[in-house]
Write a structure and sequence with these properties.
Number of helices: 7
Shape: globular
CATH class: Alpha Beta
CATH topology: Rossmann fold
Helix content: 25-40%
Number of strands: 8
Distance between the termini: 26 Å
Oligomer: single chain
Strand content: 25-35%
Strand order of the largest sheet: 1-2-4-3-5-6-7-8
Order of helices and strands: EEEHEHHHEHEEHEH
CATH superfamily: Alpha/Beta hydrolase fold, catalytic domain
Largest sheet: 8 strands, mixed
Number of domains: 1
Length: 245
């Protein structure tokens, strides 16, 4: 692992880069954090992906608010002040800013000597599930696959809702849903799946019975080891098909 800085038109994005042992090159994956930011559990997830033969970029999506090491996003959503702070951080990630950041990340990987191939994968969790979809729509020629695990608010009435973008996607999409998730209830899943079907994009969307929002990320109260391992199986299968071919 190495710490890297990625220049964007709005500042310097701090990130961590992981890669397998050896000289490479290898296909690349962008691993997007949930609302609690870059922390050891996501570093461990990045190492696991790297051990499977990928260069993994773990960016601080909240870099405009400060370096990941200084954000101190430890807290509980039951704390009103903490909840307001997190929602403000998420609210600052506008579609325009997300496109700027994605372009910088993709350009960084395209220039890196350890990265192989023109296509990149992206994996998102919680609020970044929608970011992964948006990235695949904004850069259809560069994103070979995007995965959303317990992604929230993927199909809303908002004009910029992620489900409205799937017609722009050329890569393959994967959605893992928790069946106890207030941010992605059954009617929203139905709306998303209808949009995916209408768009004709290659995808898989599945519901994990008994799972709660946060099932894939160790340390979250909803973490469920068996379900998380299923998510890992789907993720590795997706990237193996789309990035290694």
């Amino acid at each position: 692992m190495e710490d890297v800085d990625i220049k964007t038109p709005e500042g310097t994005m701090d990130a961590k880069l992981f890669h397998p042992d050896g000289q490479g090159p290898w296909p690349a994956v962008i691993l997007l954090v949930d609302a609690f930011g870059v922390r050891p559990v996501f570093e461990a997830m990045a190492r696991r992906l790297a051990a499977e033969g990928y260069v993994v970029l773990l960016p601080n999506v909240f870099y405009r608010e400060g370096h990941a090491s200084r954000l101190e996003l430890n807290g509980s959503f039951e704390d009103e002040a903490f909840r307001k702070r997190i929602y403000a951080l998420i609210g600052g990630l506008t579609p325009e800013r997300l496109k700027i950041d994605a372009a910088a990340e993709l350009d960084f990987l395209a220039r890196h000597p350890l990265v192989k191939g023109p296509k990149v994968g992206v994996a998102g969790y919680c609020m970044s599930g929608g970011i992964a979809v948006r990235m695949a729509a904004d850069f259809p020629e560069r994103i070979g696959a995007a995965a959303s695990s317990h992604g929230g608010r993927l199909a809303t009435d908002a004009p910029d809702s992620p489900h409205r973008l799937v017609g722009e996607v050329k890569g393959e999409l994967y959605f893992g849903h928790a069946d106890n998730d207030g941010s992605m209830p059954a009617e929203a899943i139905e709306k998303l799946e209808a949009a995916l079907k209408e768009a004709g994009v290659k995808h898989q969307s599945e519901l994990y019975a008994g799972a709660r929002h946060g099932y894939a990320v160790e340390g979250m109260t909803a973490y469920h080891k068996e379900t998380s391992e299923k998510h890992w199986s789907r993720l590795l299968d997706l990237f193996g098909r789309t990035l290694r071919a």
